Structure prediction request, 191 residues.
Amino acid sequence: MISYLVDAVLMVALVITSIKIVAMYRELKRLSSYHADYQRIFDQTTLALDGIEVSIQEINVRGTQVLNALGSRMDDARGIISEIDGLIREARKQQTELRTEMRQLHAEREKLGEAKGLQPFRERQANRRAKTHGAEDDAGHHDHGRIFAGQGNSLAVDPSASSEMRIQRIDDKTYAGSFRSVSVGDKDNAK
Prediction:
């Protein structure tokens, strides 16, 4: 009877062991399927990393090319800036020379005018401006001067003209030789 009892205990242990082995077999199958998924994911990750490595190498090559081109452009720009600075210095130098020459010429003109007994240049200019802006003479007439049209039909005033205002127009080169003179008094009759 003891053998039946031992046989029963062994049978129960065998059944429990079989159940555990079946559960472990199922777990191993599930892990095997997970392993295949992991292997596929790792392969895809390796391919992606290889693609990233190639992209990084291309970016490095293109970045180097861009930096080289940028460096040469910056060198060109520095050269141009130095040329512009030289031109600016030269222009300022010439400007100061021109100003001194203008002062000398103005002083010589004033001396020449004083030697001939003429009014100083500024006074002559003020008198001309007064005449062109309708200043009255001794008789009470307004002297507007004579208005001339030059190339492009721009107008200029001749302050040395008589008290009668004359408008003169010179047409473009297409009407070569045409010249009209219209008196302000005769303007209405000329229409």
Confidence is low (pLDDT under 50) at residues 135-159, 161-191. The two ends are 155 Å apart (CA to CA). The first strand starts at residue 146 and ends at 149.
